[in-house]
Amino acid sequence: MSAMLDDLIAQVLKLEIQLISARARLEASTDDEALHDLRINLRRLRSLLRPLRGLPVADVLIEAARELGRITTPLRDLEVLIAELSRHHHERLAEPRRVRLRQGCREVLQAPALERLFQVLDAWPQLLRLSAREGLLEQPRKRIRKRLLKDWARLEQALADPAHDRHALRLLIKRARYGADAYPGVVEVPERTRRLLKGAQDALGKWHDRLQWLATAEREPDLAPRTRAWSTALHAAELRADRVLEKLQARLG
């Protein structure tokens, strides 16, 4: 088996350890970063495996990670909203949402998706070795590089579109950035480009958060005291995101 596949197994094992730690911290219910760290390591796992998508050994773990990510996304959105409310001293609004968050985290810990993920992780190194022996993983570096370059091409194309969709761009930027982080030696990304990617992701993240909060306020009228500030911040975030995206397009173009 190639050194690259050995390294892939080592990285997955490290992420499994991080996920086990995050789960334990979530069970203890004393760590405000546990859910966030769980999701960060799920994202790293998916970014690591995404260039191998289409291979059964990769797809089974990608799907397990995706499902857990799907059921934890609303909880992370709620967690971010609670932090925003607390930052502006709206504890009366934040506290009932903390109750919902704690209940949601307890449900995640009992969810079949969490158990399924760790079952697949436990079996995965052996599955990868079997796939390699059966000849299903020939030239992994070439395959990974091709997928990563395709992600960059899609990002450049989207940036060049005057009618680009910020939601789609946010996902493409995350995909390109996380892929480069997962495989730093496969596609060379200059430090200046990395900084612009991070800046664009941060700017679009702020825009996305405020858009989410305003949508939530339509369903939850008690959030009305924050809507004017969020609308103003949304407009500022749009302008900031567009400026950073222009710089990124110029850099990639």
Automatic annotation (TrEMBL):
Pfam families: CHAD (PF05235). The lineage of its organism: Bacteria, Pseudomonadati, Pseudomonadota, Gammaproteobacteria, Pseudomonadales. Gene3D superfamilies: CHAD domain. It comes from Metapseudomonas otitidis. Residues 1-253 form the CHAD domain. This is CHAD domain-containing protein. InterPro entries: CHAD_dom (IPR007899), CHAD_dom_sf (IPR038186).
